[in-house]
Model the fold of this input.
Amino acid sequence: MPPAARPIVFVSDFGLGNEWVGICHSVLAGISPRSPIVDLTHLIRPLEVQSGGLLLADSMPYIAEDAVILGVVDPNVGKDREVAIGTNSGRYLVGPDNGLLSLAWKAAGGVATVVEITSPEVIRPPRAESFRAPDTLCPAAAHLAVGGALDQLGPALEPATLNALALPEPEISDGEIRGEVLDFNRFGNIQLNVREADLARAGLEDVPCLTIKAMAALAEARRGSTYAVFEAGEYGVIFDERGWMEIVRGNPASALEGLGLSPGHLVWITRSRVP
Amino acid sequence: MPPAARPIVFVSDFGLGNEWVGICHSVLAGISPRSPIVDLTHLIRPLEVQSGGLLLADSMPYIAEDAVILGVVDPNVGKDREVAIGTNSGRYLVGPDNGLLSLAWKAAGGVATVVEITSPEVIRPPRAESFRAPDTLCPAAAHLAVGGALDQLGPALEPATLNALALPEPEISDGEIRGEVLDFNRFGNIQLNVREADLARAGLEDVPCLTIKAMAALAEARRGSTYAVFEAGEYGVIFDERGWMEIVRGNPASALEGLGLSPGHLVWITRSRVP
Amino acid sequence: MPPAARPIVFVSDFGLGNEWVGICHSVLAGISPRSPIVDLTHLIRPLEVQSGGLLLADSMPYIAEDAVILGVVDPNVGKDREVAIGTNSGRYLVGPDNGLLSLAWKAAGGVATVVEITSPEVIRPPRAESFRAPDTLCPAAAHLAVGGALDQLGPALEPATLNALALPEPEISDGEIRGEVLDFNRFGNIQLNVREADLARAGLEDVPCLTIKAMAALAEARRGSTYAVFEAGEYGVIFDERGWMEIVRGNPASALEGLGLSPGHLVWITRSRVP
Done:
């Protein structure tokens, strides 16, 4: 009996409204019919490389060490190199060389080897430049899933030449954190680049209510453990299941709109003076 | 060759916009790579336990007798017991002990044995209380799918201690049914707790037009067999593919809005006096 | 070891908000647990047979030659014959005889043999006329996927009796193309029945800007290779990854609204006189 195929974990910004995800599945299953295919999500906001990269990295603890991870969020499709990366944890990463995979390879033990995907034995000329994945990235991922070697995909690259996202670090002083908006979701909840340990480093870990100052507005936000504890319109601070500080607001209000924030914007977090 | 793994049928209110469903698939496939995973739907309206429980129970005739059914709709996640149930039909049910599974186990022949999911050999401490499923319910379901024993998941519970949904029964008299709104869908169609046999019990089975009285409004609704037969704005009554009476309205009007109804509201159904 | 099962490729207008897709998966996996199931998409606009048929046909180059393709978009469910078609390429097609499969069988080498799906050994009486697929089409598709014979599904039909979509052909003269709207998407992009070769036949292949005349409005549209090159509100013409001419408009404007078009409407394409 042949060894089982590696699972393929697939994340993209393709959406579900057309045939793109299905066509990729069709190609993957054609080459590696025994691989479970896990759709992490295909609703990454279109072209948002950092959002996709963060979601992928934060999902890593739940992804098997023999998985082949296929990520496609590529605003410059056809211009970026396409790469396949062997990580020190055993997982493979396949996608464009635009930083999308960089947070994931850090979470997966770092890059062991990397190749550019060019081999005509594995891939084929894309039928459309705007939709290369089924002809290049999918065959490459499936090749690895059935046990094919990384170096059959194309020439080795120097890992240092890979593009990486620079995730902004919060600035922490005694009693204040200057954080940055990483992402938001459809409920208007705001994800900041702040971890629970950062609160402790600023001496704010036991503060029941925090002041969140943005350029355009200011909110007093109560600490809580879940969304449900906040009154309608009330601001709150929780740590989400991925470990990031989240600014939320009791339904149906939106923290994102209330504070006028977008990804990349700064916020200042201090002890609230409100009684 | 090892015996094939049991299929896993998965229903939740997780939505498709983030990585939650994908992470659960990743964990399930990691433990039981040979199980087909069937996503019944992940768009149960958030936290609507009865809606999820009804959909699951009504789907039972189409679900294999060797299936492991994983249901996650849990407004009190972290507070409810997590349980695994062996039914008399052979199907397993895994989920929170909040009633979500109760209509399903009735449709699957009743509870044979039930355990609380606690075993550290199978599950792990949840990485996040707000998202326990990948660390507790998913490993438990996959354990059963690969042929693991129910009693390895934790201590036996008394079936009578399980929480069950009390689905409201219609009140039927000669010429009148007092029903209750069970659910609605995005088209504004209203599902009532009324079966075709109830119409006959009230002597209304051959009535071509019914009066539907709600607290806030009243409609004359024509019997029909499909949505397409009703004029724009016209009210109609059909029996849906799950066997429930549905109040519909010709596109683009919404019966739900027109009658001012919500789940739990009462309606009175009688013979229409309109000519 | 038994031979691997054929992959099943599934496309429908069922949407993702209820249990329909899941129930079909449950039935398919119950009969053919080793078949990879590829969901091409389930968000075909409801009841839009031509839209589904085109998407399926255009996806054919990416679909394996041993695939069983299950298509369900059926405004007349319960009235149409249900058919299973063996194509000359080896792929099977299963669905209603309403034209949905006709563009696909042309793309798959034409019809070799076709049967009506009636056999009580394979299918069962539908539990609901409005949702026949899990009782008829799904068992038939899964029967073929596990290696069952086509002629076990029911009596042979004369291929010439199958319903086919008549895809409108553009009218081409020197310097002008009269095309027709095939479809549109949620961005308001308009797909026309015009291929890149048609532009050349009209002598318009090197024209940098085209005039698009509709009944209600007129636009000057610049040729481009991707969506991103057009300014906000600017009209553009690209060829999409499926090979069709698409009229687009720089975000956030909608070409569909701007030109007042719907599927079936005519447009006239000429050289732009705008400098």
